[in-house]
Amino acid sequence: MSREQIEESAGPGPEMEIVHLLRAVAVELGRHSARFAQRHGLHPTDVRALIALMDASRAGEKTTAGRLGAALGLNSAGTTALVDRLERAGHVRRVRGAGDRRKVVVEVEQRAVALGREHFGPLIDHAVTLLQGYDERELAAIRGFLTGVRDAAAGEDE
Amino acid sequence: MSREQIEESAGPGPEMEIVHLLRAVAVELGRHSARFAQRHGLHPTDVRALIALMDASRAGEKTTAGRLGAALGLNSAGTTALVDRLERAGHVRRVRGAGDRRKVVVEVEQRAVALGREHFGPLIDHAVTLLQGYDERELAAIRGFLTGVRDAAAGEDE
DNA sequence: CCCTATTATCTCGCCCGACGAGATACTTGT
DNA sequence: ACAAGTATCTCGTCGGGCGAGATAATAGGG
Question: Is this prediction's pTM over 0.85?
């Protein structure tokens, strides 16, 4: 076992402190989403779905029911139930595919976007303000670290 | 509306890019935990419980069933079921409280710690290696940003 | 020291999100 | 036009989490 590995597991080195900090951030962001969910009578999966839909929308892509379910790791039955819930709550609407009429495109209602902005806006503003206090090199470090961790977490297996 | 706010909502400014990056990191860390869960036949809640138990253990604290449930937002029935599952799978053991015999202390089995290290170790090593490439000022920026976001996400409401 | 109030956990019955299997509707290739 | 393939939906079931209440142990007033 190398010296570094011993330090990782045994002592709170300066790097490990940041690793735990990042985990804490992930946990708190999760809690923050959960509060949004509970406040609007949604389930965690519903929030994940809305976020996925808005991400796709921002990238200019249409999201079908199947693609949404796949992104969330649900099977077709669960996907139908999910879209049913979101539609019943007025957060999305089903639109039959124009070219391929088997498909169902799920579109986010403006009302849901507004609710999301209302809840996550202050936190985003706060983060942006924080970032405005750093210079280019510091921003590059933050960006580089986050990118590295994201890619490592995403690609590590399978 | 100020110039900054227009940029936040409308355009992908340099700050918003990092904000989305942070969210992506949170999502990927969640997926990574989910893979660990599925691989060992656990539910997301079980993983959260193990992490909470190990955090407490690292801080030298004994965790009772009640405290564990409160940390996860479960009621007593759910907590009992959770500890039942973890105990049946051999990840924890129940120990009757020494001083107060009503309490049940939940202790993590070494086997579970080893499984966790096996799964999360490589990712942690990768993050530590990344961090070793930055100087003090860059590390301070990363630490400062993460701390700020964590506190904002945790304290924003209620 | 006993009796009541309080605390910690567990048991029981229910709800509902997610799954597997299969039905239905539409499209594509021959 | 027909068979094979694809996208979504329906039905029955499983299981995590909840509310209500039972049980066991501690703490406090008389």
Answer: yes
